[in-house]
Structures are given as C-alpha cells and as structure tokens.
Amino acid sequence: MTQVQERTGVATVGGNPVTLLGPEIKVGDKAPDFKVNKDLMTEVSLSDYAGKVKLISVVPSVDTGTCDAQTRRFNVEADKLGDNVVILTISVDLPFALSRFCGAAGIDKVVTLSDYKSRAFGQAYGVLIKEIQLDQRAIFILDENNTVRYVEYLMEMKEHPNYDAALDALKELV
Questions:
Q1: How confident is the chain (174 residues) per 10-residue block, as mean pLDDT?
Q2: Cα separation, 154 vs 101, whole angstroms
Q3: Which of 58, 73, 88, 153 is deepest in the core (most CB within 10 A)?
Q4: Contact residues for 19 (Cβ-Cβ < 8 A; gap 6+)
Q5: 20, 55, 58, 67: which is the annotated catalytic residue?
Q6: Which residue positions are annotated as catalytic (predicted)?
C-alpha cells in the first residue's frame, strides 16, 4: 500500500484545522495526471485536454454559496478566453448533482467533473480533506504542456479565490 502524504495545519473548515492528503503542488511542477468522471460511466483524464491551457477550479461542493459563485464567475470569464483555454471545475459532487446545478445555473462554458469515485484528483493535487473526504478549494493553472503556472490553495474552505490574480495568470498564457 502506498503511503499518502498528510499535510496538517495548512487548511481549515469553519475555522477547524483539517488534514490535506497528497503533495503540495508548486509553480513549475509537472501537473500530475488524474482520472475523474464526466458522468457516472465516462472517465476523463488530464490528457483529454492536451494542447490547451487549463484552469482547474477546485470546489468542495457546488451546492454551497462560495462554490456556486466561483463556478459562475469562471463560467462568465470562459467566454472571453478563446478556444485554447478550458476551465475545469472539479468537486466530489456526484455527476447527477453537477448536471442539475449546471442546468439550473446556466453553466455552459465550464466543464464540471466529479472526483467522487476514488478521490484520485484530490490526492494527486493535495486538496483531499482527510476528515470529510471533500476537496479543499484551490485554483491551478496549467500551460499547454501541463506545467503548473499558477497555484492558489485556500486556507479556509469558505474563502473565495483571488479571481483577478488567477485570470491575470491565465491571460499571460493565451
């Protein structure tokens, strides 16, 4: 059995410290591959978005106010970024919940993906919260070659990411 790295004292949920599983990804790292679900039966991986600049928006659940706002914001911005950019929103929500949310919220530019089966994305990117098995809020920007160009791990689950900084970093790559 492979030992999963645990990071404590780097994140909180409602002010309570939690343990993140997996490594801390840094700018300049080669992005780890992952498999997540597009729907119940269809898995996708990083290679499915080869040749594109990727903004990966990690949210605990689209059924919360901050996650809803984050997903809506990036959906609006996606229209301005061109065909060489894909925005992926990844959570542990079931694909059914993601589909329902997108339909109700008019989300049509952001690709929503589910880490529900194995939590492999969360562990590979160091965002899986051990105590509650949700992914901690984070932003990762990868260039066309899957080199990490921007990272923001949010200390508190309820905090919003720095949208402007992430979008500025993204625009530098397109």
A1: 75 93 97 96 96 97 95 95 95 96 95 96 97 97 98 95 97 93
A2: 23
A3: 58
A4: 6, 7, 8, 129, 130, 131
A5: 67
A6: 67 (cysteine sulfenic acid (-soh) intermediate)
